[in-house]
Amino acid sequence: MPDQKALLLPEKQGQFVVDNWPIPNPGPGEVLIKVKATALNPVDWKMRKVGFLIEKYPAVFGWDFSGDVEAVSEGVEGFEKGDRVTGMSYPARGNGTFQQYILMPARLVVKIPPSLNYVDAASMPVGYGTAALGLLAAPPLGAGLNSSCDFSVNHAGKAAFVCGGSSSVGQFAIQILRKMKYSPIITYASARHTEFLKSLGATHVIDRAATPTSSVPDAVRALVGANRTPRKLCFSLLSEGGVAVAIQGGEDKDVGGRKLIHIILGAHGDGEFGEGMWKALGRQLEEGVIVPNRVEILPNGLRGIIDGLKRMEDNAVSGVKLVALPQEPT
Fold first, then answer.
1. Is 35 in contact with 102 (CB distance < 8 Å)?
2. Is residue 246 classed exposed, middle or buried when 0-12, 13-18 and 19+ CB atoms within 10 A define those classes?
3. Do residues 97 and 21 touch, judged by C-beta distance below 8 A?
4. Strands (DSSP E) along the chain, which ranges?
5. Higher pLDDT residue, 158 or 104?
6. What's the burial of 253, exposed, middle or buried (CB within 10 Å: 0-12/13-18/19+)?
7. Measured at the alpha carbon of residue 168, what is the angle toward residues 299 and 59, in degrees to the nearest 5?
8. Across all residues in the chain, what is the average pLDDT?
9. How would you classify residue 260: left for phi > 0, otherwise alpha for psi between -120 and 50, otherwise beta?
10. d(Cα 117, Cα 98) in Å, to the nearest integer?
11. Domains plus CATH for the chain?
């Protein structure tokens, strides 16, 4: 196959460049996908700046994608050329989404319903996958609320707190908790996102700008001082038997019947759960009960990703998912 265009990092902690890159051939169990849209995640700029996860360079970063099936390897069932699909890749395995074509295991690809466009579909996989893994998967991967991914399991009468509800992961966490009948669902976020977060299922939105954590005890049972991190804040709110899930690294805790579980990098760590999770997402998309993030489309194709990652590093993005269109001219 001829070369494609990709956003490459030539060396560890280097600078991104758009260059030619080989189009891969699908192996057993794989599909080749023409990437129509790819979303940016905070881990992308952190991987470049810190130099973790990737061992071989030049490298292609990127996790979220949507696009069209271009080729199907022998033995793959359920997909054919032209199918519209979405999913989450894993750049540490040499298959990032900041390129025009990627390979994916067919078992981890989800068909996009006709009602969903490529841009919205690309906004979902990492945020949804991280929220679902953290909330639903059995320990030690997650909180174990429902490892079968059957969102109809009823948790009515239980309260939930989402710190950072306007983030991509936070938005999907709120929706999953709503689907499982949690109430109240309280989130700590910017006030400008209040109506949107309530439309997703939040019952209370505490304005993080106007309300220091030391002033929130009337809205949430007990918050700690403003010098606490979100992880410590969430752990302090747990009643006996409660579970907090953090999406950054750290040590798990089990103190007085309260558990703090750390997860990172989505659902590739448990193949069985990951397959069930993506099948569940397919059902939820068809039923319209899980909605995508709000998005901002970046200009200039793959090259636009560079500016988008800089904005994320500068903390200049809130409440939206940045999405690039790899097939567009750079």
1. yes
2. buried
3. no
4. 3-9, 17-22, 30-39, 59-60, 64-72, 84-88, 101-105, 109-111, 160-163, 185-189, 204-207, 243-246, 253-255, 258-262, 295-297, 321-324
5. 104
6. middle
7. 60
8. 86
9. beta
10. 19
11. 3-124+292-324 (3.90.180.10), 127-262 (3.40.50.720)
How far are the Cα atoms of 42, 143, 188, 307 from residue 296, in angstroms, in the given order? 15, 32, 23, 13
Distance CA 19, CA 21 (A): 6
Tokens of 217: 């005890």
- pLDDT one-digit tens code per residue, 196-235: 999 999 998 989 888 766 665 555 654 323 334 445 556 6
In sign, the C-alpha dihedral spanning 282, 79, 321, 243 is positive
Which ranges in the chain belong to alpha helices (H)? 42-50, 118-122, 125-136, 168-179, 194-200, 230-236, 271-287, 304-313
Q: How far is CA 219 from CA 191, 240, 298, in A?
A: 14, 19, 37
How far is it, in rounded angstroms, from Cα 93 to Cα 280?
A: 25
Strand blocks (E) in 13-62: 17-22, 30-39, 59-60
The reported pTM is 0.85
Q: Is the dihedral of CA 303, 305, 309, 315 positive or negative?
A: positive
Residue type present at position 155: H
The rounded distance, in Å, linking the Cα atoms of 108 and 90 is 11
Alpha carbons within 13 angstroms on the beta-carbon side of residue 20 total 4
Tokens of 158: 């239980």
Bin 305: left if φ > 0, else alpha if -120 < ψ < 50, else beta: alpha
Residue written as tokens 């051939």?
25
Cβ atoms < 10 Å from Cβ of 303: 18
Cα atoms found within 13 Å of the Cα of residue 199, Cβ hemisphere only: 10
| Backbone conformation region of residue 167, classed left if phi is above 0, alpha if psi is from -120 to 50, else beta | beta
Those residues with Cβ within 8 angstroms of residue 208's Cβ, 6 or more apart along the chain or in another chain: 188, 189, 190
Question: In the structure encoding, which two tokens stand for residue 234, read together?
Answer: 């969430």
